Amino acid sequence: MASTISFTSKGTNLSHVRSGLGSVKEGFETVLKLSIDERPKVRRNAQDFFEKVFKSLRLAGNARKVSKWRNPNCNGVLPPGSMGFPLIGETLQLLIPSYSLDLHPFIKKRIHRYGPIFRSNLAGRPVIVSADPEFNYYILSQEGRSVEIWYLDTFSKLFRQQGESRTNVAGYVHKYLRGAFLSQIGSENLREKLLLHIQDMVNRTLCSWSNQESVEVKHSASLAVCDFTAKVLFGYDAEKSPDNLSETFTRFVEGLISFPLNIPRTAYRQCLQDRQKALSILKNVLTDRRNSVENYRGDVLDLLLNDMGKEKFLTEDFICLIMLGGLFASFESISTITTLLLKLFSAHPEVVQELEAEHEKILVSRHGSDSLSITWDEYKSMTFTHQVINETLRLGNVAPGLLRRAIKDVQFKGYTIPSGWTIMMVTSAQQVNPEVYKDPLVFNPWRWKDFDSITVSKNFTPFGGGTRQCVGAEYSRLTLSLFIHLLVTKYRWTKIKEGEIRRAPMLGFGDGIHFKFSEKE
């Protein structure tokens, strides 16, 4: 009855409906009268017809999705570029290794095609890539206003950069943590307390290397610096611990930039396992400290534990993540640049000769003194050493760029960067700019004696910039300087295995660079 009312209420003639139903009935009767041989043919034709219809609908839907992917919504004009394939974007192109200290081809080709500011999609996220120094300077000045620091999703998940207590916000949490780490590895504490300890660590490391037939420098330096940094920041004692934090953490770092495919035998799965193991080790360090009756040590862990009662964001789990992040930020660049230094020294003996002269002069000036240790004034006087470190940092470009996320639409040079998009500032592009650095891929430390401070500040940012400049910058420079001093005054070294420069996109050395070290007579 309801169906009849529905038809008639729309003015449909009931006799036409009955006629249509009769036609359907007649069609079924016709099919039933077909021979057995003819029925499958009709059935196949119908199936083919409907399959074509469904395929067409799917293609139309996919075409719409692809069009939306390639042409994202924007309240203005997006920079030129390509969003790549759906889901993966242009990630695979970025992960293809390059074997040069030059810019990664992914970036270099797109700068040539689109200009210094272009759009892309990496690891499923829309990204604006910038090699424009003006735009990069502007973005760094907008920290906490238009942008906030950001990480790749893999990194964010592994370090749990979510919620109000995440360390990438430009608010109180960031300022608190920055102050905590600067209290330990800032210039004042380096000068007053850590200078001798770092020198002792480097001395012991080189002595250990001299007793080995061959040393894979990147891995060995990572272990040494990781153990030392963990001891300085959190009181971790590698010699007494039943767990090997440095080995676990080094493997974890190697998997950070892997494709986030969480299935057995992938680098990402191993990264997750190593992360959990590293956190477990750090949790044990934290628990032991809380149960310890020893006097206050004054390191970062003591500071965090003492403030747990008054700072709501300081939970045990969050403190462990702070410890994990602090280790990552403090040691990776040191071990990479140390390895690159030795590789470049092998190809440029004239640089080693100049370094030997500078450091021999320091030893001669110390004649008659009872101290065998470097002083802060001597460290600051190492002019050519600092130039060598600058040149190595310029060429090294350990990471492909600095990441920020737009927290509101950003307008610049007629372009609009939508809120929520990631911004990758390729500051390394300026560091190999031939307009600033003549023969930019040539290792030439002497070039730095002609640069003024303004030129350097605009074109050289190996430790980031703005309010987010790396708190471990001076710590890294001091460690590298002491390494060079002890290396050129006390040791000889011979390259055993060449190794290769490899960007994928982080700077690495393939199967490693191996050296033989021996003490000078």
TrEMBL record:
Organism annotation = Hevea brasiliensis
* Entry cofactors: heme
On the tree of life, the source organism's domain of life is Eukaryota
Keywords of the record, alphabetical order, are:
Heme, Iron, Membrane, Metal-binding, Monooxygenase, Oxidoreductase, Transmembrane, Transmembrane helix
Annotated membrane topology: Single-pass membrane protein
Where in the cell? Membrane
For the ligand (heme), the binding residues are 470
Q: Which GO MF terms are attached to this record?
A: heme binding; iron ion binding; monooxygenase activity; oxidoreductase activity, acting on paired donors, with incorporation or reduction of molecular oxygen
- Name the PROSITE patterns for this protein: CYTOCHROME_P450
Name this protein carries in UniProt: RRP12 N-terminal HEAT domain-containing protein
Where does this chain mainly localize?
A: membrane
Q: GO terms for biological process? A: brassinosteroid biosynthetic process; brassinosteroid homeostasis; sterol metabolic process
**Coiled-coil intervals:** none
Q: Does the keyword Metal-binding apply?
A: yes
Entry GO terms, CC: membrane
| Stored Pfam families | HEAT_RRP12_N, p450
Family named by the database record: Belongs to the cytochrome P450 family.
Q: Which residues form the RRP12 N-terminal HEAT domain?
A: 23-68
Q: Which InterPro entries match?
A: Cyt_P450, Cyt_P450_CS, Cyt_P450_E_grp-IV, Cyt_P450_sf, HEAT_RRP12_N
